[in-house]
UniProtKB/TrEMBL annotation:
Pfam families reported for this sequence: Pyr_redox_2, Reductase_C
Protein's name according to its UniProt entry: FAD-dependent oxidoreductase
Keyword Transcription regulation appears in the UniProt entry: no
Organism annotation: Polyangium jinanense
Annotated FAD/NAD(P)-binding domain residues: 3-309
């Protein structure tokens, strides 16, 4: 019976291990993770967990007893150092080796680091990023009312932390190099909505503004200020705390070290298989073909991790079920749910419904009169309909789409 070894006890790895047992896999399942925690949800890290509203145990995807019940060998605090493909063995950090019949890489990614003058010091006590429980545990005690927090990067994680911090009474400034927030993932209408949402609560923004260097204290252990250039004009911003939220670097080193193809993620096919038939890759670390996009893509979202784990479980059970899901994602800020489906890159027209002032707002991105993506804020029924519109690829009547009196469901083919 096949021994399946999963590297990375995160969202995707945890889903896969349980999914394999549910589908009837009889052989050993070993789930290796370098963090001290069993698989957990990361979304609350920058939301309720940072705010102190979600307990640690509520982050865990399944209680530890479930792994025992499913006979999943969960080995935490265990880092995998290398893959020996010819021997089908892994080298672990403690020097031991572990054999596999099938190997699944579910190694996720790590926060992208800024490389700026002043950052040569390895650890700065008030400079943070957000990827893991331990990141939040380190920063939470310092999230005290009155502290000045400078967030570098106006993406989802930076904005979620801004929302929590301003509600905790911190003075928050968000620095974004692009001229608008979330510019890589949304249209200007949504960027403006989000900016106003935060601005009303007291968050300040510096757009078209690049961090150029850190000013450290005399002991060179803390950041005191950040040198920036706004539209090219130099400025210095004071900071008690600095959060860097500039994206993710996929953890692909194990794969590349073993000679597998890596191109913004570990290259896999629509069944989650690498070029080595014994090795699969799933979740944030994998780059896969997208039927929806007509190209290759690496996605960073919980729905993708879950779907990719489902596809890999099917592959490992000898079924061929290609990945066919449409990408979607959500974010929570100030109790408002933002939901996005599809990818808006390359859209020709944006049609909106609802009113930004009323905090209910949907933006539909069209190409060739087809809805290729949508951002929905506070209108959950629109989101369900938008998902159908995006997956049906049907052409829509643009004037009817823009008329909130016309039910969206009637537009779907
Ligand atoms: P991960 O969950 O990162 O798990 C990978 C695991 O592998 C990690 O524990 C890592 O330490 C471990 N690992 C790596 N290398 C090794 C090794 N060599 N040996 C052993 N273990 C290793 N998505 C949404 O859809 N909605 C949201 O609102 C949302 N909010 C988010 C907020 C934050 C703060 C973060 C960080 C992410 C958020 N995401 C959100 C993204 C989502 O959490 C990720 O897409 C998802 O966790 C990816 O799952 P994964 O299993 O691929 O990777």
């Amino acid at each position: 019976e096949e021994r399946i070894v999963i590297v990375g006890a995160g969202q995707a790895g945890g889903e896969l291990a349980a999914g394999l047992r549910k589908q009837g896999h009889q052989g050993r399942i070993v789930l290796l993770g370098d963090e001290p925690h069993p698989p957990y949800q990361r979304p609350p890290l920058s939301k309720g967990f940072l705010q102190g509203k979600v307990a640690l145990s509520d982050l865990y995807l399944k209680p530890l007893s479930t792994y025992e019940r499913f006979d999943i060998e969960l080995r935490l605090g265990t880092r995998v150092e290398a893959i020996d493909r010819s021997a089908r063995e892994l080298s672990l950090q403690d020097g031991s080796r572990l054999g596999y019949d099938k190997l699944v890489l579910a190694t996720g990614g790590r926060a992208r680091r800024l490389s700026l003058p002043g950052m040569e010091t390895a650890e700065l006590e008030n400079l943070f990023s957000v990827r893991s429980i331990s990141d939040i545990e380190t920063m939470r005690a310092k999230f005290v009312a009155g502290n000045r927090l400078l967030i570098i990067g106006g993406g989802y994680i930076g904005l979620e932390v801004a929302a929590v911090a301003v509600q905790l009474g911190l003075q928050v400034t968000v620095l974004e190099a692009a001229p608008r927030l979330l510019s890589r993932v949304t249209g200007p209408e949504v960027s403006t909505f989000i900016e106003e949402l935060h601005h009303e609560r007291g968050v300040e923004f510096r757009l078209s503004c690049e961090a150029r260097g850190l000013e450290l204290d005399e002991a060179r252990q803390k950041v005191r200020g950040v040198h920036v250039a706004r539209h090219g004009v130099p400025e210095r911003l004071d900071a008690d705390l600095v959060l860097v939220g500039i994206g993710l670097v996929p953890n692909t080193e194990l794969a590349s070290g073993a000679g597998l193809a890596v191109d913004d993620g570990i290259v896999v096919d629509e069944y989650a298989c690498s070029a080595d038939p014994a090795i699969l890759a799933i979740g944030d670390c994998a780059n896969q073909p997208s039927a929806y996009m007509g190209g290759r893509i690496r996605l960073e979202s919980v729905p993708n991790a879950i779907e990719h784990a489902r596809v890999a479980a099917a592959t490992l059970m000898g079924k061929r079920e290609p990945y066919a899901a449409i990408p979607w994602f959500w974010s929570d800020q100030y109790g408002l749910k933002l939901q996005m489906v599809g990818l808006s890159a390359g859209y020709e027209q944006c049609i909106t419904r609802g009113s930004a002032g009323g905090k209910e707002f949907s933006a539909f991105y069209l190409k060739d009169k087809r809805v290729i993506a949508a951002d929905v804020i506070g209108r959950p029924a629109d989101f369900m309909a938008a998902k159908r519109l995006v997956s049906s690829r049907a052409q829509v009547e643009v004037t009817r789409l823009g008329d909130a009196a016309v039910p969206l469901a009637s537009l779907a083919a």
